[in-house]
């Protein structure tokens, strides 16, 4: 397969002015008639080159005349010599088969409805077109079908029996095209924008899901208000539609005026959804809505610039969620995610810059690095330039580039202009892969305290030597009595090694370093458990307060794993103080109670030069859970009773309480024979507590009966059933995981073609660290078998799940060779997709 390089970017030979599409829908023979007005690009003249894949071409005309053309599996070309000299109209008719499209890219069918997914390069499976984001056109779409709801982008123009026409006045790249046709029900509302324009809002769902739309609708309206108030961005069409689709490769898609969502990311009700789902729905609705400005009105010149829209939009949705809920809690959750997914990626064979320099299949680069590290870069930029300059830079960006397809350089130029700063070194964050290691030493003399930082970024594939990055390091200083003697101050580190001195101090302070996780680095700091416990008790920065608890937990677990030590008493006491401190937010207490994941511990051991043993990690973590349960035995039952949040409301308060309550319950279940959890399972009126109590039971080796009654209650609800599958795999004991997965794949409700269900089982297997890495290699083989089968149906989801193997070089020789064998077996599959081939090849390194 061909590798595409950023350095080879060239403007297209032709621009698009207007596009008229007529769809005559039929499951296996949909006709797509296109009329495209092309304008030659005077700056780069050449042949007319259109993308097209899996299309049956029925007719082609240019300015009404037939013309010579060449067609391959991927392109249609008309030689420049055969084209009219100026602008011309291209007309073609193609036939496609949505029903047999199991890749879920292009136009496909899901539970009887038609829907599309075009980003990144799916439009070429719908018709011949210059399918690249820098080519933007004004689309008019006619949909013909007997289905009652017919939707496309923009505003509705006209409709009649069996047809509807839509016109999108905003020019856009083809990846934002969308079409939906189905027997759907609208949950309707409206929104008045800041300039007084009335917008019609709809969430379209299948019959039976109408009662799961209210929360998503409220989140949409809150997002629209927030973008007006915080960024001054107003919505720009008469209508905004969201459609829920059951079969979807990712979370959701920001198509102009017609967002399409994985039903798991928009539907929510207290009975069927957990607090985590509510929070995710709120965040994703906001994310897709925010793309209307960061992504749609201003888009990417090419796919290497993906982080331009994704990093910024993730940053925006994170700020929104923080405003809606709690910034400290949200920040801790973000960092947990970042470390679990992005640091993991950055540490292995798939490490790549936030703006990659090459790709084979762009769908493989919708990664934690592009999204989450991309968002961290925006956060650092804001910290470095300050709030005022940040918003001024954004305003300039919106103003200057509205309606254009641009680059990271264009984005940064706005901030260079408003601040007068040289952002050349900062720009390295986009080009240099790998997580910087930051270490610090402390010295006190006279009245001065000095912090000396050293940074180093390890090599990553294709980048052996790294340069120092610009690091905003937020620090505070705390006196022995717990008072803060230096409030949060941002140090700007630009060198490999750099010192910062604070004078006028009466006594040696305790430093709180990297507050709010001000830069995406791995900080090493040699401090003893007493200092950590002091900061856990006294740090005014909630992130670092939590971080100290986490480091204590990690040290305790590492000592248990490597030296067979008993859990440190200091740690148990410090944790108990947090657990029982009513002045702290329950959500924060729950997060502090959470233990580092097995995967995190494996990486930590590997970084320290040891070979992680998954079974030993599992056992130590289980032993610590039991030790915590016994150490807290006198307070757990009372806490469990007190934390009843009352009537279910999916807000920060209620979910925080329930989150702590479920953490308490999972420990309590280890010492009360499951009594409390069984009681709650019987009485729960919401999914958070019903699933939480079931998980607590399963985590204590119980819950067989509850699992069966859960099935009997919910077998008809596909999203709840995803949880039923997932929970069993997630809590399976290491030596049973493969067998449980094998059994579940034989279940009548298992369906590999549905990405949610496939991920519920195989994503959970990959996340069950000790189970996946079971000594006999059964987990590896099972996943490889499933991926080999899925690849012919759905390359995108297959390639995504290959990341389960990305950490293979951490482990012992036996495991490495078993994994290598499985990767080679996948690679040997005839006709393996480009997506999976690229992923497996990169993982093998
Ligand atoms: N932009 C889409 C992701 C498309 C993924 C293509 N494989 C969703 C989002 O980030 O909002
Ligand atoms: Zn996005």
From TrEMBL:
A GO biological-process term: proteolysis
Peptidase M1 alanyl aminopeptidase C-terminal domain: residues covered: 531-844
Residues of the Peptidase M1 alanyl aminopeptidase Ig-like fold domain: 434-525
Reaction(s) the record says it catalyses: Release of an N-terminal amino acid, Xaa-|-Yaa- from a peptide, amide or arylamide. Xaa is preferably Ala, but may be most amino acids including Pro (slow action). When a terminal hydrophobic residue is followed by a prolyl residue, the two may be released as an intact Xaa-Pro dipeptide
Gene3D superfamilies xrefs: 2.60.40.1840, 3.30.2010.30, Neutral Protease Domain 2, Peptidase M1, alanyl aminopeptidase, C-terminal domain, tricorn interacting facor f3 domain
A Pfam family of this chain: Peptidase_M1_N
GO molecular function, one term: zinc ion binding
Record-annotated Peptidase M1 membrane alanine aminopeptidase domain positions: 217-429
Domain Aminopeptidase N-like N-terminal: 48-176
Alphabetized UniProt keyword annotations: Aminopeptidase, Hydrolase, Metal-binding, Metalloprotease, Protease, Zinc
UniProt cross-references to InterPro entries, sorted A to Z: Aminopeptidase_N-like_N (IPR045357), Aminopeptidase_N-like_N_sf (IPR042097), PepN_Ig-like_sf (IPR038438), Peptidase_M1 (IPR001930), Peptidase_M1_dom (IPR014782), Peptidase_M1_pepN (IPR012779), Peptidase_M1_pepN_C (IPR024601), Peptidase_M1_pepN_C_sf (IPR037144)
EC code(s) of this entry: 3.4.11.2
Cofactor entry: Zn(2+)
Keyword check for Hydrolase: yes
Family: Belongs to the peptidase M1 family.
Protein's recorded name: Aminopeptidase N
Organism: Aquimixticola soesokkakensis
Lineage, top ranks: Bacteria, Pseudomonadati, Pseudomonadota, Alphaproteobacteria, Rhodobacterales
The encoding gene: pepN
């Amino acid at each position: 397969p061909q590798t595409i390089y950023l350095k080879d970017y060239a403007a297209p030979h032709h621009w698009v002015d207007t596009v008229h599409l007529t769809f005559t829908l039929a499951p296996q023979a949909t006709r797509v008639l296109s009329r495209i007005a092309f304008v030659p690009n005077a700056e780069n003249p050449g042949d007319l080159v259109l993308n097209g894949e899996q299309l049956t071409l029925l007719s082609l005309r240019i300015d009404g005349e037939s013309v010579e053309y060449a067609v391959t599996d991927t392109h249609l070309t008309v030689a420049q010599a055969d084209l009219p000299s100026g602008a011309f109209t291209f007309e073609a008719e193609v036939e496609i088969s949505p029903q047999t499209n199991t890749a879920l890219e292009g136009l496909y069918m899901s539970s009887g409805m038609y829907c599309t997914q075009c980003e990144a390069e799916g439009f070429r499976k719908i018709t011949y077109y210059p399918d690249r984001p820098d080519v933007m056109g004004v689309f008019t779409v006619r949909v013909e079908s007997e289905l009652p709801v017919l939707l496309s982008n923009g505003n509705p123009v006209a409709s009649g029996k069996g047809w509807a026409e839509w016109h999108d006045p905003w020019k856009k790249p083809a990846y934002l095209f969308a079409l939906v046709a189905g027997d759907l029900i609208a949950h309707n509302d409206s929104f008045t924008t800041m300039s007084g324009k009335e917008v019609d809002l709809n969430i379209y769902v299948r019959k039976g899901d109408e009662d799961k739309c209210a929360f998503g609708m409220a989140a949409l309206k809150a997002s629209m208000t927030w973008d007006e108030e915080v960024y001054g961005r107003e919505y720009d069409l008469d209508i905004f539609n969201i459609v829920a689709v059951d079969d979807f490769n990712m979370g959701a898609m920001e198509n102009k005026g017609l967002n399409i969502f994985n039903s798991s990311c928009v539907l929510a009700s207290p009975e069927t959804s957990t607090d985590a789902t509510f929070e995710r729905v709120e965040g994703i609705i906001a994310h897709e809505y925010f793309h209307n400005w960061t992504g749609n009105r201003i888009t990417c010149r090419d796919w290497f610039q993906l982080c331009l829209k994704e990093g910024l939009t993730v940053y925006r949705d994170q700020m929104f969620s923080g405003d809606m809920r709690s910034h400290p809690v949200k920040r801790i959750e973000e960092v947990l995610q970042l470390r679990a997914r992005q640091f993991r990626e950055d540490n292995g064979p798939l490490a790549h810059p936030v703006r990659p320099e090459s790709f084979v299949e762009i769908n493989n680069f919708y990664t934690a690095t592009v999204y989450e590290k991309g968002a961290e870069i925006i956060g650092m930029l804001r910290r470095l330039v300050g709030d005022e300059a940040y918003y001024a830079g954004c305003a300039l960006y919106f103003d200057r580039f509205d309606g254009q397809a641009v680059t990271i350089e264009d984005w940064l130029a706005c901030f260079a202009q408003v601040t007068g700063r040289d952002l050349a070194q900062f720009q390295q964050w986009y080009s240099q892969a790998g997580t910087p290691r930051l270490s610090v030493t402390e010295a006190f003399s006279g009245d001065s305290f000095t912090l000396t930082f050293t940074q180093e970024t390890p090599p990553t594939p294709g980048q052996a030597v790294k340069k120092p990055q610009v690091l905003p390091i937020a620090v505070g200083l705390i006196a022995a009595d717990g008072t803060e003697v230096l409030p949060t101050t941002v140090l700007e580190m630009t060198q490999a090694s750099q010192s910062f001195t604070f004078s006028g101090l009466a006594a040696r302070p305790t430093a709180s370093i990297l507050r709010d996780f001000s830069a995406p680095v791995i900080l090493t700091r040699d401090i003893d458990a007493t200092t950590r416990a002091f900061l856990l008790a006294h740090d005014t920065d909630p992130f670092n307060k939590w971080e100290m608890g986490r480091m204590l937990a990690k040290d305790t677990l590492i000592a248990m794993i490597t030296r067979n030590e008993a859990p440190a008493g200091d740690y148990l006491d410090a944790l108990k103080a947090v657990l029982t401190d009513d002045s702290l937010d329950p959500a924060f207490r729950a997060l502090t109670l959470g233990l580092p994941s097995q995967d995190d511990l494996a990486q930590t051991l590997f970084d320290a030069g040891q070979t992680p043993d998954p079974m030993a990690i599992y056992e130590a973590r289980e032993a610590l859970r039991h030790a915590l349960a016994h150490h807290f035995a006198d307070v757990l039952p009372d806490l469990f009773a007190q934390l009843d949040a009352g009537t279910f409301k999916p807000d920060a308060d209620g979910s925080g309480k329930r989150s702590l309550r479920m953490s308490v319950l999972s420990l309590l279940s280890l010492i009360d024979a499951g009594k409390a959890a069984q009681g709650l399972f019987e009485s729960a009126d919401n999914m958070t507590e019903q699933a939480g109590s079931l998980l607590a039971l399963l985590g204590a080796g119980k819950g067989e009966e509850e699992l069966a009654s859960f099935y009997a209650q919910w077998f008809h609800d596909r999203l709840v059933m995803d949880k039923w599958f997932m929970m069993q795999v997630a809590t399976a004991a290491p030596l049973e995981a493969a067998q449980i997965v094998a059994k579940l794949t034989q279940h009548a409700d298992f369906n590999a073609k549905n990405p949610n269900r496939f991920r519920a089982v195989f994503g959970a297997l990959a996340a069950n660290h000790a189970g996946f890495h079971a000594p006999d290699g059964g987990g590896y083989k099972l996943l490889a078998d499933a991926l080999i089968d899925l690849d012919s149906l759905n390359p995108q989801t297959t390639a995504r799940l290959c990341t389960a193997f990305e950490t293979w070089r951490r482990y012992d020789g036996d495991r490495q060779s078993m994994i290598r064998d499985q990767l080679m077996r996948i690679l040997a599959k005839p006709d393996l997709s480009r997506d999976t081939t690229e992923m497996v090849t990169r993982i093998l390194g």
